[in-house]
Design goal:
Blueprint lengths: L1 E5 L7 E5 L4 E5 L4 H11 L5 E6 L2 H10 L3 E6 L7 H12 L6 E4 L9 H33 L3 E6 L12 H21 L4 E8 L10 H4 L2 H4 L5 H11 L6 E4 L3 H10 L1 H9 L2 H5 L15
Parallel strand pairs: 3-4, 3-6, 4-5, 6-7, 7-8, 8-9
Antiparallel strand pairs: 1-2
Helix pairs in contact: 1-8, 3-4, 4-5, 9-10
Bound molecules: NADP nicotinamide-adenine-dinucleotide phosphate.
Length: 290
């Protein structure tokens, strides 16, 4: 796929090159969007995958099913030594090469601020933001050394428009979006493209969207992990800066900027309750807020 990058060195204007797939790390690869991304990337010639998540058995099974070389690191990405574990694995098993980092692992635990308090904000930031930043910091030298290369951060439409009871999740994704925009500009001269994907409602293990799928009125707004995987490919090796999935969700983000009072009115009304769906995190006893 042709990608345009502008190299800062004198005399070199815009250069086209064919982005090739090489070694790709996909976090949150045991289920949902991450698993679909691994399957999508495995179709590209030359791909070697490193699958990252906590559940080793799921990673082992997926690695065995993929049509390309695939290794895995079973690790909790919030652990202090997780970034170094992934980096050491890349150095030991993939000669330290890294052409694509997909920061996808994430979760949501619904609670109002009054119920969940700072603790709910903290755990969202720990996984959805801090873990992404820490892993990227550890792997950026490998991405630069393997350039042209790419990072794709999986944010959310909730990182543009916040709803009641998902404020902590939104805060972590707003943070991720802001940081990703800056990183895009900073790493461009180093030939590390930084893309971002903003999914809407996607049926996965962690985000089953059951309430929406049960009603004919809202069923159509729920999409599939495979669509997000295609967007992740577009925003990584494909060189796009960002993609909403499905695309019309971008309209909600635009309205939030252009007509904030209208969006507040809609999300403050009864209709908003239908859009706050339960998540797998809600059922985890250990993560019951407060
Ligand atoms: N589905 C949606 O509607 C939707 C919408 C917008 C954004 N997103 C974003 O898309 C990303 C993927 O979500 P998904 O829908 O595919 O959900 P999912 O099916 O629950 O997948 C989440 C993945 O993250 C991994 N993970 C969770 N905590 C981890 C930890 N502490 N350390 C390492 N891995 C961890 C999980 O694997 P293990 O449990 O094996 O560790 C799993 O592979 C998330 O960032 C989410 O915020 C999803």
């Amino acid at each position: 796929m042709a990608v345009k990058l502008r190299h800062p060195s004198a005399g070199v204007a815009e250069v086209d090159y064919v982005a090739r797939m090489g070694v790709a790390v996909v976090t949150g690869a045991s289920t949902g969007i991450g698993k679909a991304t691994a399957v999508r990337l495995a179709r590209e010639p030359g791909t070697e995958l490193v699958l990252v998540a906590r559940r080793e058995q799921l990673l082992r099974e997926l690695a065995g099913e993929l049509p390309c070389r695939a290794t895995y690191v079973a690790v909790d990405l919030t652990a202090a030594d997780a970034p170094q574990q992934v980096r050491s694995h890349l150095e030991a098993e993939h000669a330290g090469a890294l052409h694509l980092l997909v920061n996808n692992a994430g979760a949501s635990w619904r609670a109002s601020f009054a119920e969940g308090g700072y603790e709910n904000v903290r755990r969202h930031m720990e996984l959805n933001f801090d873990a992404v930043v820490r892993l990227t910091e550890a792997l950026l030298p490998l991405l630069r050394a393997s350039a042209p290369s790419a990072i794709v951060n999986v944010a959310s439409t909730a990182g543009r428009v916040a709803r009641a009871r998902t404020g902590s999740y939104s805060a972590s994704k707003f943070a991720l979006i802001g940081w990703t925009d800056a990183l895009y500009a900073e790493e461009k001269p180093n030939w590390v493209h930084v893309g971002m994907v903003l999914p809407g409602f996607i049926k996965t293990e962690g985000f089953p969207a059951t309430e929406l799928r049960e009603k004919a009125l809202t069923r159509w707004i729920v999409s599939k992990p495979e669509k997000v995987a295609d967007a992740i490919y577009e925003c990584g090796p494909g060189g796009r800066a960002e993609r909403y999935v499905p695309r019309p969700y971008g309209l909600a983000a635009a309205l939030r900027i252009l007509t904030p009072s209208l969006v507040r009115r809609v999300l403050g009304g009864g209709a908003a309750a239908n859009l706050t769906t339960s998540t797998a995190g809600d059922n985890e006893k250990s993560s019951d807020p407060g």
